[in-house]
């Protein structure tokens, strides 16, 4: 099942004709990545969510084929979402995953296991009412789009980074959980097919 961002009706007039449309450049390899396919990935536990909230802000470095992107996640603002993302990062889930969606002036998106022949993780997480706003360089969770409708509480592994201020995404309830603090120039160079080489936690601080 493919997860995509949903564009609000107010976006359609101003957005490019392709915005929100499914991308077809999604070739799968002949053989799945057996390493990650064998991982036992689960939603965050209550203890992990509490730890993310207590920890506050933590930085993650996303090394891509175009360069490095550093994001600062806000565990106080969206503890469940941050705990889930950190679990995936620590498990190596994002290593080798491509950016499968790029909408100029809107978002870049990655995290679909099907893009590398892996099975879905088998769980979703609830949306959170995060105070983090969708300004340029915001990282947030994608949701499922099914039957012409956005499905609430369907975040899992896919995330996006905004290329511009997108306040309408706040209005329709997407969970933003951090900001790009370094490498926005890299974000703006990402094209469909560019890969995440490796993602890892590089530092943390309270606050």
Number of helices: 6
Indicate the mean pLDDT: 85
So what's the CATH class? Mainly Beta
Give the strand tally. Answer: 10
Order of H and E elements: HHHEEHEEEEEEHEHE
- Radius of gyration, taken over Cα atoms and rounded to an integer in Å: 16 Å
Please give the CATH architecture.
Answer: Beta Barrel
Strand content: 25-35%
Unreliable runs = 5-38
> What is the CATH topology classification name?
Cyclophilin
| Strand ordering within the main sheet | 3-4-8-5-9-2-1-10
Give the number of domains. Answer: 1
Helical percent range? 10-25%
Sum up the overall morphology in one term: globular
Keywords:
Cyclophilin; 8-stranded antiparallel β-sheet; two-stranded antiparallel sheet; 207 residues
Note down, in words, how this protein is organized.
With about 210 residues, the chain is an alpha+beta fold. It has a single domain, classed as Cyclophilin-like (Cyclophilin, Beta Barrel), CATH 2.40.100.10. About 20% of the residues lie in helices and about 25% in strands. Helix 3 crosses helix 4. About 15% of the residues have low confidence.
Concise summary:
This protein has about 210 residues and is an alpha+beta fold. Helix content is about 20%, strand content about 25%. The protein has a single domain (about 40-200), classed as Cyclophilin-like (Cyclophilin, Beta Barrel).
Topology of this structure?
Blueprint: H1 9-12, H2 34-37, H3 46-55, E1 57-64, E2 67-74, H4 79-90, E3 99-103, E4 107-110, E5 138-141, E6 145-146, E7 149-150, E8 159-162, H5 167-171, E9 176-182, H6 184-189, E10 196-205
Antiparallel strand pairs: 1-2, 1-10, 2-9, 3-4, 4-8, 5-8, 5-9, 6-7
């Amino acid at each position: 099942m493919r997860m995509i961002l949903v564009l609000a009706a107010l976006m359609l007039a101003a957005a490019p004709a392709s915005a929100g449309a499914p991308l077809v450049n999604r070739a799968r390899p002949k053989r799945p990545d057996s390493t990650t396919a064998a991982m036992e990935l689960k939603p965050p536990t209550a203890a992990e969510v509490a730890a993310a909230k207590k920890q506050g802000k933590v930085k993650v470095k996303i090394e891509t084929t175009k360069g490095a992107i550093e994001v600062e996640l806000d565990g106080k603002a969206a503890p469940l979402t941050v705990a889930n993302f950190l679990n995936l990062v620590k498990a190596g889930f994002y290593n080798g995953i491509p950016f499968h969606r790029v909408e100029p002036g809107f978002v870049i998106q990655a995290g679909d296991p099907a893009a590398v022949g892996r099975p879905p993780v088998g769980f979703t997480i609830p949306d959170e009412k995060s105070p983090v706003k969708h300004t340029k360089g915001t990282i947030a969770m994608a949701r499922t789009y099914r039957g012409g409708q956005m499905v609430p509480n369907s975040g899992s592994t896919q995330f996006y980074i905004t290329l511009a201020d997108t306040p309408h995404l706040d209005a329709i309830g997407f969970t933003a959980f951090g900001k790009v603090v370094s490498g926005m120039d890299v974000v703006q160079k990402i094209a469909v097919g560019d890969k995440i080489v490796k993602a890892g936690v590089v530092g943390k601080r309270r606050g």
